[in-house]
Amino acid sequence: MKLSIYRLFGAAVALDLLAFVVAFSLRHAKHGVGEIVGSIAWFTLLADALPVIVLAAGSLRHAIGDRRIARPRQPLITRNQRSAP
Q1: With contact defined as beta carbons under 8 Å apart, do 34 and 49 qualify?
Q2: Which are the contacts of 48, defined by CB distance < 8 A and separation ≥ 6?
Q3: What does the DSSP assignment read for 5-66?
């Protein structure tokens, strides 16, 4: 399986959504395992936010870069445009 930026972005978003659901479901836990799991999920959500933003920007740049129209470069001065003495 070849790893692409889109698959990595999808995995990061899935991890973020899972952490959000777990943190949201355990938001009122004040003691024990529920509080520990909720805290880990919350900090996972926060830690994964930056890679999601970076991967979103990279995939957007990749998508926009593929749609650019390639035009042939024209020389600034052609042979017919010689300066007059």
Answers
A1: no
A2: 12, 15, 16, 19
A3: HHHHHHHHHHHHHHHHHHHHHTTT--SHHHHHHHHHHHHHHHHHHHHHHHHHHHHHHHHHHH
Three-state SS at 74: coil
pLDDT digits (tens, 9 = 90+) for 37-81: 888 888 888 888 888 898 888 888 877 876 666 666 666 666 665
Confidence of residue 22 (pLDDT cuts 50, 70, 90): confident
**d(Cα 14, Cα 20) in Å, to the nearest integer?**
10
In whole angstroms, give the CA distance from residue 20 to residue 38. Answer: 9
